[in-house]
């Protein structure tokens, strides 16, 4: 099976353009599913079997090499950088933080969940924008 990288690139661009977490297309017996964290291609009929041959790659549109300690979201929800609108942010790039410090709030089902840092370090990058959705396991902050 030949993989058409231009289709994967185009679908990856749609993720950002329409603020989607995943997109899937099916043509004949080929199914391509692109999500923020992986790409999978199946060459079986869609309902043929629950087990698929999968190809997983990093999302080509997010090919920035991340170095440092990644802190990931423990839950699905909406990320907030501050305890309330207009308040001081929990963390900013360049700020030194300790393990256990609140780095963000993730709202899930009308509950505000404080996300603690899992390591000590200096904030190198904040990977999610204020008020945007996050997925379980998505990198939200990178520490040096």
Overall geometry = elongated
Question: CATH fold name of the largest domain, please?
Answer: OB fold (Dihydrolipoamide Acetyltransferase, E2P)
Assembly state (oligomeric): single chain
CATH class of the largest domain: Mainly Beta
Helix/strand structural class: mainly beta
Work out the helicity level: under 10%
Query: In angstroms, what is the radius of gyration?
Result: 18 Å
CATH H-level homologous superfamily name of the largest domain: RNA polymerase II/Efflux pump adaptor protein, barrel-sandwich hybrid domain
Strand percent estimate: 35-45%
- How many domains in all? 2
Query: How many beta-strand runs?
Result: 11
Described by strand count, sense and barrel closure, the largest sheet is: 4 strands, antiparallel
Distance between the termini: 41 Å
Helical element count?
1
One letter per element, helices H and strands E, the order comes to HEEEEEEEEEEE
Query: Which CATH architecture of the largest domain would you pick?
Result: Beta Barrel
Unreliable residue stretches:
45-64
- For the biggest β-sheet, the strand order reads 4-11-9-6
The averaged pLDDT comes out at: 78
Can you tell me about this structure?
This protein has 144 residues and is mainly beta. It has 2 domains: 5-62, no CATH class; 69-143, Beta Barrel (OB fold (Dihydrolipoamide Acetyltransferase, E2P)), CATH 2.40.50. Helix content is 9%, strand content 36%. It contains 1 helix and 11 strands. It has one helix spanning 5-17, and strands at residues 22-27, 30-35, 39-42, 69-72, 77-80, 96-97, 102-108, 111-116, 121-126, 133-134, 139-143. A 4-stranded antiparallel sheet has the order 4-11-9-6, with no helix packed on it. A 4-stranded antiparallel sheet has the order 8-7-5-10, with no helix packed on it. A 3-stranded antiparallel sheet has the order 1-2-3, covered by helices on one side. Strand 7 (102-108) and strand 8 (111-116) form a beta hairpin. The protein is elongated, with a radius of gyration of 18 Å. It starts with a helix and ends with a strand. 17% of the residues are buried.
